[in-house]
Write a structure and sequence with these properties.
It is a single chain. The radius of gyration is 22 Å and the shape is globular. It has 13 helices and 22 strands. Helix content is 31%, strand content 22%. Helix 3 runs antiparallel to helix 4 and helix 3 runs antiparallel to helix 7. The longest helix has 32 residues. A 7-stranded mixed sheet has the order 6-5-4-3-2-1-22. Strands 7-8-9-10-11-20-21 form a 7-stranded mixed sheet, with helices on one face. A 6-stranded parallel sheet has the order 14-13-15-12-16-19. Strand 8 and strand 9 form a beta hairpin. By secondary structure, it is an alpha/beta fold. It has 2 domains: 276 residues, Metallo-beta-lactamase, Chain A (4-Layer Sandwich), CATH 3.60.15; 183 residues, Rossmann fold.
Length: 466
C-alpha cells in the first residue's frame, strides 16, 4: 500500500492525496492551488491517470479541496465520488461560481489578447464541465456510518468541526486473503476545526489508526480563546463606527460568513452595536447561507437552541443581502455606519477588492481579517504591512486600521491537533500535509516531543510506503 501526495505537500492549498492499494486507487480531495506562484499549478497534469481512480473521497467543500474535480472528470475520471450531503450541496455552488469566474476572466483576457494579437486564454473548466462532474457524486454518507465501497474497502466519515458537512475520513482496507487477511486503517484528517465555535460542533474523537494524514495549517501555534476573539472583534467594530468609518471584513463565502453573522446577531440582540447596517455582499455567501438552513441537523446545541427559541442570525432588521451588482455598488454611498462582509477571504478577487479601493485609504475605516491569508495574496500583503496596495491596476494607500483576529480560524491550533492525534493511538506514521513548511516542522517537533510518534513531511509526488 502506498500514499502519494499530489497537492498540499509543503503548501496549504491544492489538497490531493492518492492511496494505492493492491486492488484500488483512492483519491482524497482534489483542490485548487491558491496564492502567488501556485495557481499556475492547476493547469499542470495531475501526476496520475484520472481514469484509473476508483473512488474520490471529499472531506469538505472548500475550493482548495474540491476546485479541480471538474478537471479530473474532463481528463478521464469515471469513478465514484463519496462525501456528505451537505458537502455536495456546497460543492455545487462553489464549483459553479468557480467556473463562472474563470469564464469571465477568460472573456476579459480574450478582449485584451485580441487587441495585442495574442492567443486567447481558456478557462480550466466551464459551467458545463461542472454539471458533468456533479453526475459522479454517487454516494452520500452520514457521520459515523461505516460504509462499504467494495469488497474489503470501508470508509467512515466523522464530523471534523471545520465547516458544515466537513469530515475526517477513516479508510479501512483489507490486505491479503483468507486467514492472512489484515485490515489497515488510514485516517485522513481533512481540515480539523477549532474548538467552541458557533454553529458547528467540535471535531469528533477519531478511532485508533495505523496511519494518520494530518493537516498542519496552524501547526506552529495555538489560537486565542474564541470568546476573547469575539470581544476584540466587537471593540474593533464599535471603535470604527464611532469614529465615522466603515468596517470591511474579507470573508470566505462558506462557513466564515455565516459564523460572522451569528456573532453579529448576538451583538445586535444584546444592544452592543451602534446604529449600523450589516451587508452580506456576496452572492455565493448568500446561497451558502440558505443551505445552512437546510442542514440544521449539523448545528451544535447552542445554535439549535437559538433556532428553537425563534432566533435567526440570517434574518434580522440590521442585515441586508446584496446579491446584485448594482446593490453592491450602492454600498459606496455609505461613508460610515456600514459593516461589509464580502469575498474573497484572502482578497484574491471578488467584491472585497471593490470595497477596499473605496475605503482602504480612509483612516476612519477598518479592515478586519478573521481567517488565513496565504503568502502571495493581497490579503496577506495588507496584513504584512505592504503599503501601497495595487488594486485594479492602481496604487491605493493603506490608511485604514488593520486588525487580524485569529481566534475565528476554522482550523485547529497546535494543542487541538495534538489532542486529536493522541486519540488515534500509536499510528506507525503521521504524515503532515496542508501547511507551510514552518508550520509542519513546528508540529512535527511537537508530535515527536509530546507523543513520541514518527512524522513524515512529504513533498509533491513523494511515495510513502504504508
Amino acid at each position: 500500500m502506498k500514499l502519494i501526495c499530489y497537492g498540499a505537500a509543503g503548501t496549504v492549498t491544492g489538497s490531493c492525496h492518492l492511496l494505492k492499494t493492491r486492488d484500488y486507487s483512492i483519491l482524497v480531495d482534489c483542490g485548487f492551488f491558491q496564492g502567488k506562484g501556485l495557481f499556475e499549478r492547476n493547469e499542470e497534469e495531475f501526476g496520475f491517470d484520472p481514469s484509473k481512480i476508483d473512488f474520490l473521497l471529499l472531506t469538505h467543500a472548500h475550493i482548495d479541496h474540491i476546485g479541480r474535480v471538474p478537471m479530473l472528470v474532463k481528463r478521464g475520471f469515471q469513478g465514484r465520488i463519496v462525501t456528505t450531503a451537505a458537502t455536495y450541496d456546497f460543492a455545487r455552488i462553489m464549483l459553479l461560481e468557480s467556473a463562472e469566474l474563470q469564464e469571465e476572466t477568460a472573456r476579459r483576457e480574450k478582449r485584451k489578447n485580441n487587441r495585442g494579437g495574442e492567443e486567447p486564454t481558456e478557462p480550466l473548466y466551464n459551467v458545463e464541465d461542472v454539471l458533468d462532474c456533479l453526475d459522479f457524486f454517487d454516494t452520500f454518507v452520514t457521520y459515523d456510518a461505516r460504509t462499504e465501497l467494495d469488497e474489503g474497502l470501508h470508509v467512515t466519515f466523522r464530523d471534523a468541526g471545520h465547516i458544515l458537512g466537513s469530515a475526517f475520513i477513516e479508510v479501512e482496507v483489507a490486505e491479503g486473503r483468507g486467514k492472512k487477511a489484515a485490515t489497515r486503517r488510514i485516517t485522513f484528517s481533512g481540515d480539523l476545526g477549532n474548538l467552541d465555535k458557533p454553529l458547528i460542533r467540535d471535531p469528533q474523537i477519531p478511532s485508533e489508526s495505523d496511519i494518520v494524514v494530518l493537516e498542519s495549517t496552524y501547526g506552529g501555534r495555538d489560537h486565542r480563546p474564541f470568546d476573547d476573539s469575539v470581544e476584540e472583534f466587537r471593540k474593533a467594530i464599535v471603535e470604527t463606527l464611532e469614529r465615522g468609518g466603515n468596517v470591511l471584513i474579507p470573508s470566505f463565502a462558506l462557513e466564515r460568513s455565516q459564523e460572522l453573522l451569528y456573532v453579529l446577531y448576538g451583538f445586535y440582540r444584546a444592544g452592543d452595536l451602534p446604529r449600523c447596517t450589516i451587508y452580506l455582499d456576496s452572492p455565493m455567501a448568500i446561497d451558502c447561507t440558505r443551505i445552512f438552513a437546510k442542514h440544521g441537523d449539523c448545528f451544535d446545541e447552542e445554535a439549535l437552541a437559538l433556532s428553537e427559541a425563534g432566533g435567526n442570525p440570517f434574518h434580522f432588521e440590521a442585515l441586508r443581502f446584496t446579491r446584485h451588482t448594482d446593490d453592491s455598488r450602492a454600498i459606496n454611498n455609505h461613508t460610515s455606519g456600514a459593516i461589509i462582509i464580502a469575498g474573497s477571504g484572502m482578497c484574491t478577487g471578488g467584491r472585497i477588492l471593490h470595497h477596499l479601493r473605496h475605503n482602504l485609504w480612509r483612516p476612519e475605516c477598518s479592515v478586519i481579517f478573521v481567517g488565513y491569508a496565504a503568502v502571495g495574496t493581497t490579503g496577506r500583503a495588507i496584513i504584512d504591512g505592504v503599503n501601497p496596495i495595487r488594486l485594479y491596476g492602481e496604487s491605493v494607500q493603506v490608511r485604514a486600521q488593520i486588525h487580524t483576529i485569529n481566534g475565528f480560524s476554522g482550523h485547529a491550533g497546535q494543542r487541538t491537533l495534538l489532542d486529536w492525534l493522541e486519540r488515534t493511538g500509536q499510528p506507525e506514521k503521521v504524515i503532515l500535509v496542508h501547511g507551510e513548511d514552518s508550520s509542519r516542522e513546528a508540529l512535527s517537533h511537537a508530535i515527536g516531543e509530546k507523543l513520541g510518534l514518527t512524522t513524515v513531511l512529504p513533498g509533491t509526488g513523494d511515495v510513502i510506503e504504508i
